[in-house]
Amino acid sequence: PDLAVMHLVVSKKGEQEIPGLTDDQRPRRLGPKRASHIRKLFGLEKQDDVRKFVVRRETAKKKKAPKIQRLITPAMLQRKRYYKSQVRKRMVLGKQLKEDYHKRLTEYRQEQKEARASEVAKKKKHEK
């Protein structure tokens, strides 16, 4: 059978170039998509805007750029703040409910103790 494609890996380069394989350098078709990888590629600082450095490619009519993943946006930070505030609210509410429960429990136990004491007092009164 005739082979259309062969999957090979160059493990060791010889003296001569192989025409059409090792003699030309082809750039990667796509650039990095993750924000940290774009920063690493261009040597950017944390405060630099990654969106300006994203690798764009030409198509028939327009330029295309990937949607940058793990990009820290104001909306994301706001969402994080909101989530943390909700967690804090739940913790405070839980603490308050626990305090109220323990307060009510001590009241109830005191009531039970008094009721028991009055029952015992009644019985002692009837015994005499």
Shape: elongated
Beta fraction: under 5%
Number of strands: 2
Q: What is the string of SSEs from the N terminus onward? A: HEEH
- Return residue spans where pLDDT drops below 50 for at least 5 consecutive residues: none
Question: Which class of secondary structure composition applies to the elements?
Answer: mainly alpha
The helix count comes to 2
Span of the ends, CA to CA: 116 Å
Taking Cα atoms only, what radius of gyration do you get, to the nearest Å?
Answer: 37 Å
Strand order of the largest sheet: 1-2
* Share in helix: 40-55%
The main sheet comes to: 2 strands, antiparallel
Average residue-wise pLDDT: 92
Task: Reconstruct the topology from this structure.
Elements: H1 35-42, E1 57-58, E2 63-64, H2 74-127
Antiparallel strand pairs: 1-2
Brief overview, please?
Helix content is about 50%, strand content about 5%. By secondary structure, the chain is mainly alpha-helical.
Protein model, in words:
The chain has 128 residues and is mainly alpha-helical. The chain has helices at 35-42, 74-127, and strands spanning 57-58, 63-64. Strands 1-2 form a two-stranded antiparallel sheet. Strand 1 and strand 2 form a beta hairpin. The longest helix is centred in the last third of the chain and has 54 residues, at 74-127. The protein is elongated, with a radius of gyration of 37 Å. It starts with 34 loop residues before the first helix and ends with a helix. The model has no long low-confidence stretch (mean pLDDT 92).
